[in-house]
Amino acid sequence: MNSKRDTSFHIGILSAMPEEVGHTILNLKNVIKAQYGDLTIYSGEWFSSNYLNKPIFVTVAWSGWGKVSSSRAATRIISTIYNEKKIDFIIFTGVAGGIKKDLKQWDIVIPDELIQYDMDARPIFERFILPALNMDRIKTDPKILNWANKVVREKLDKKELPFYKNLYNGLIGTGDQFVAKKSSIDNLKTILPEIFAVEMEGGAVAQVAHQEKIPCLIVRVISDNADDEASLNFNEFLKLYQKYSWDLIKIFLDNLESKFLQL
Ligand code: SAH
User: I need a surface site. Which of 22, 49, 80, 95 has the fewest CB within 10 A?
Assistant: First the structure.
C-alpha cells in the first residue's frame, strides 16, 4: 500500500526529554542540526522498509518540561524546512501520569481531547477556556485518531511491541505541575471527572498545532500513577523507556497515509 507513495513526508517528532526521543536520532541518516539558543533541532531521513527507497524527512527535538518550553519547540519544529519540504504533521510522544483507575505503566493513552487544566481566566472566560481560541478542549482529528489507534493496535495484537500494554483513548490534562499527591488527583477528578492522564506539554503543543493549522497527534505512555510514589516510579520507568520509545515512534513513521495529511 505504502510502496506507491509518490509524495515526500516531513514529520516533526517532539518530546519533553531526551529519553522520550530515545534512539530516534540514531536511526536517521544525513542528520543536520539547527541551534536556537538552548534548543537543538535535528533533521534527517528515515529509510523505512515500508516505503521502498524513498526516505521520510524527520525533524526531532526535546523541549524540556512544561507548556512554555514545549510550545516554543513546537513552533520551531513547525517552522523547519528540510530538503525544501515543510512540516506535514507533528507528533508529540512522551510519558504521563495515569489518573483513571486501572491505568498501568506501559499503557498507551492517545487522547481524543486535551485540556489545559490550569487555564483559568474567570470571570472573563469560563474556567479552562483558552482565550485565543474561545474553546476549552482541543480534539484530536478523528481521522488521525482512528489511524493512530489502528496502527498501534495492530502492533500490540501481533505482540510486536514488547513492554507496551493496553491502548486507551481519553481526556488528557496538561498543566505546569508534576502531579504526585493524592490530594492533587482528587482535586483534578473533582474539576474534570473524566480525566484519564496528566502531563505537562500535550495540550500546549496541540494548541500550537491547531493555531498553525498543522495536523497533530499526542501519544502518551503511562510512567506513574500521579501519586506519592510517582517520582520514584517515574525515574525508574524513564531509564527503561528510553530503550523502547523509538519502537513506538517508528510505528507512526512506518505507516503514514497521505489521505489524512491532505497532501
Ligand atoms: N519525576 C521527576 C519530574 C518529572 S516531570 C522529578 O521528580 O524530578 C514530568 C515529565 O513527565 C513532564 O514532561 C510530563 O509531561 C511527564 N509526566 C509524567 N508523569 C507526570 C505526572 N504525574 N504529572 C505531570 N507530568 C508528568
Answer: 49
Q: Give the count of domains, the chain.
A: 1
CA distance 241 to 237: 6
Q: Which structural domain, as residue segments, surrounds residue 229?
A: 3-261
pTM over 0.85? The answer is yes
The pLDDT, as a whole number, for residue 7 is 64
Instruction: State the CATH number of the domain containing residue 200.
Output: 3.40.50.1580
pLDDT at 111: 99
The answer, yes or no, to whether the previous bond of 193 is cis (omega within 30 of 0) is: no
Helix axes 142-157, 230-254, angle to 10 degrees: 100
Q: Which atom of ligand 1 is nearest to the CA of 17?
A: 13
d(CA 237, CA 164): 12
Average confidence score pLDDT of the chain:
94
Query: What letter represents residue 168's amino acid?
Result: Y
- Among the atoms of ligand 1, which is closest to the Cα of residue 235? 1
Which residue out of 199, 235, 237 has the highest number of ligand 1 atoms within 8 Å of its CB and is therefore the one to mutate? 199
